[in-house]
Each structure stands twice: as C-alpha cells, then as structure tokens.
Design goal:
Blueprint: E1 2-3, E2 10-16, H1 20-31, E3 36-40, E4 53-54, H2 56-63, H3 68-74, E5 76-77, E6 80-85, E7 88-94, E8 98-99, H4 102-111, E9 118-121, E10 124-128, E11 134-138, E12 143-151, H5 158-162, E13 166-184, E14 195-198, E15 206-214, E16 217-224, H6 231-238, H7 240-247, H8 251-255, E17 258-275, E18 282-284, H9 299-313, H10 315-320, H11 326-333, H12 336-357, H13 361-390, H14 392-400
Parallel strand pairs: 1-9, 2-3, 2-12, 3-9, 6-14, 12-18
Antiparallel strand pairs: 4-8, 5-8, 6-7, 10-11, 11-12, 13-16, 13-17, 14-15, 15-16
Helix pairs in contact: 1-4, 1-9, 2-9, 6-7, 9-12
Bound molecules: flavin-adenine dinucleotide (FAD).
The site of flavin-adenine dinucleotide has 35 residues, from α1, β3 and α9.
Length: 417
Amino acid sequence: MSVTAADQRIFDVVIVGAGLAGSIAATMLSRAGHAVAVVDPHAVYPAEFRCEKLDSEQMAVLQKTGLANAVRAASTHDERAWVSRLGHLIEKRLSDQHGIDYGRLVNTLRAEIPSNVVFKRDKATDVANGPDLQRVTLASGEVVTARLVILASGLGNALRQSMGMDRIDLATGFSVTIGFDVEPEPGSRFPFRALTHYSERARHRVSYITLFPIGQRMRANLFVYREVGDPWLRAFRDDPEATLNAAMPRLARLTGPMRIAGPVKVRPIDLYATRGYRQPGVVLIGDAFATACPAAGTGARKALVDVERLCNGYVSDWLATPGMDVEKIGRFYDDEAKCRSDARSFALALRMRAMALDTSALWSARRLAAVALGLSRWAMHTVRDAMQRLAPEARAKQANIGAAPDVAVPKAASDLG
Ligand SMILES: Cc1cc2nc3c(=O)[nH]c(=O)nc-3n(C[C@H](O)[C@H](O)[C@H](O)COP(=O)(O)OP(=O)(O)OC[C@H]3O[C@@H](n4cnc5c(N)ncnc54)[C@H](O)[C@@H]3O)c2cc1C
C-alpha cells in the first residue's frame, strides 16, 4: 500500500476500515483492476481480542478470496482435537482449525494488499452518498471521492448514523467471551493438541471452553452467558483458576493441573443489525452490517462470506456501467449465500444459548443426542484411522489436504451453495 497526503482523483472504491473484511476487499478489488483507496486510523492493526481461530468452513471461504495460503502460513494448525460433553470425553478427531491472534490475522491480510492501493491513515467522520459519486470526509478534513463506498468499519455506529442508518439491538449482553493463555504444570504437557469442553451443567451458564495452539502457546476462549454486571465476571477476573474450576469441575480431568498465564480479556457481546442500509453508493459488510455471537463461531465467517460475495460477485459488474443506485447495491444484500450466512449466524447463536441454558426435556434430549453423535463419529474415525494406517495411498491423500493452491474463484462459479 502507498500512503499519500492529499488526493484529487476519483477512486472506483473507497473502503472505510481495514480490519478483517476491509483488508480482504482491498486486495481482491485491486487484483481485479480497480482503483482502490483504504481509510483506517491504524497503520498497523493493534493487538485486539477478537476471533482467534478459523475453522475449515472459514478457510474454505477464504480460499475463494485468494488469501487462504497467507493466513495458513501465519497460523497454527491444530490437526487433532478432543471434544467433551456433559463432563465426559466423547470424541477424538482430526481437526482443521487455524489459531492466530486477531492482530496478526489482519496484519497478515494487510501485507497482501497491492502497493497501488492508496492507504489513508485517518478516521472517516462523514459519508455523503448518492447514486453517482460518494464523498468520504476524513478527520484531517481531506475528502476522498469514489464511485462506491464499502463500509467495513466494524462495531462503531457513528458513520452509519451519519447516513441515517440505525443500529437495532437484537440482544444486548447476549454473551461474554473470555480469552487467556493456559499452561500445564511445569515439566508436563497437555495430552491433546486442542480441546472443546462443553457446559457440564446449565446452572453454570457456560457454553463451552476451547483450548487451541497459537505458536507455542495454548490459548483458551471461554464463552458464557452472563450479564455485564454479574459478580461471576468479577470473580473470574479476581481468581480465574478457581472460578473456572467451579464452573467446569471436570475440565481438569482432561487437562491435568494447569494455570492461567498472562492477562484475562473479558468482552461482552451485543447482537445487533442495521436498519436503513439499502442506500445508493454505499455497501456494508462484516460487523458494520450486523454482529454475531462468538460462541457460535460465525462472526468471522459472516464477514468472510460478505466480502467474498461482494468482491467476487458484484463490484466489477456495478463499476462496468454508470451510476451506483440502490437497485445495484440491493443485489448484494439479496445474495442467496449472504442471506443464508446471516440467517444461520443468528439461528446458531440462539441454538448455542439454548443448548447451554435450556433445561426443558427437548433441549436435554438434544444434549444427549449430541453426545451420541460425538461417540458414533469417534467410532467411525477410529475405524477410518485404522484403515488409513493399512492403506499407504490413502495416507498420502490425507497429507495433501490443505495444500490446495490459492485461487480466486471466477465469478460464475463463486456461489457458496
Ligand atoms: C471477543 C470476541 C471474540 C470473537 N471470537 C470469534 C470467534 O471465535 N469466531 C468467529 O467467527 N468470530 C468471532 N468474533 C467475531 C469476529 O471477530 C468479527 O465478526 C470480525 O472480526 C469482524 O470483522 P470486520 O472486518 O467486520 O471488523 P474489524 O476487523 O473490527 O475491522 C473494522 C476496522 O474499521 C476501522 N475503523 C473503525 N471506525 C473507522 C472509521 N471511522 N474510519 C476508518 N476506519 C475505521 C477499525 O480501525 C478496524 O480496522 C469475535 C468477536 C469478539 C469481539
């Protein structure tokens, strides 16, 4: 990326926010031959507690953006994972999760942005949008003009408000995500590469804890359903080990003695959507459009689907003809894969919460069904592993999974479905 002070040109696209979604959009659109400017106050994305691993579904979407290999190289593959439910180990399986600190993830993506993309290190304070040209005013007073604005500015509400869009709270304080490093007792090792340990009892108000490697560290993300002022959260901050053990007494049977190392990050999560987003000249993606519950693990996927569909499916067509009216922009919001991803994200958030908290017969049966499913999968994997050990060609095929070339999907074949 190049950095300029003042710029009179009319860009094809100005992207407001170079986080996960915005950085990917910048690379994809520049590679597609468009003149792109990016506005973000941070030259280097700061360390921030957000999504810290990408699963195979998320990597599959990233593959379609042409950026999966860069992320794969910067992250830690967990390879195998244990799963426990209701306090019992029910599954040991192959796993395809990639652990990476959020700042490193975004900065890895930013490093891929071609040098002809113009980076404005500034904050956008106002967007004046219309059916032809858009004007983004920066805090410095500079105005950036483009045919299309992609708003990828994450959680902040001020810019949306400046365009007459409202944030609709679907559920404030829906869940709380807690992040920390863990270490086994000196001289010992964790017996797993990664572990997901689901709630043991509804009264603990825990969804699950997931332990996964990032480099040499073992990272933990704990998802709980607690109000912001809940004394339990203070207790966790004051004495995280004792509070964790009380909420998940059987966890230590799997991990062995462990301690919480380094800072504990606690982030309450609101679920919101945006009203009034169908406007000419501007399109919202990622958290700027709507948030997801981290316990459902769909926030990053939603942002990735947004940016993949927008940049592989629509922007080049929009720019090929004059104007940028609401009808053009609406095609993206009506995209089938995007709508499915948004709906799934919200439904999964509610489902995960009910799985953790609902004590009705229906949800108790669903918890037991999840145990049965895990056990049967474990049995299947055990048989498959044994067969692979006996068949060398099958083992070679397995080793090649994940080494597919990075290819941006051609437009006609870019539908996720
Ligand atoms: C604690 C936590 C844990 C999470 N865990 C998971 C998980 O396990 N799995 C999962 O799938 N999802 C998870 N998520 C959700 C996921 O991290 C987000 O949905 C995703 O990162 C959103 O990406 P984005 O590009 O929309 O926003 P961001 O990456 O936040 O990017 C926004 C960018 O906009 C810039 N910006 C803001 N305002 C302006 C302005 N006025 N002008 C210019 N630039 C601006 C910011 O500097 C930033 O660079 C988690 C979220 C949180 C908070």
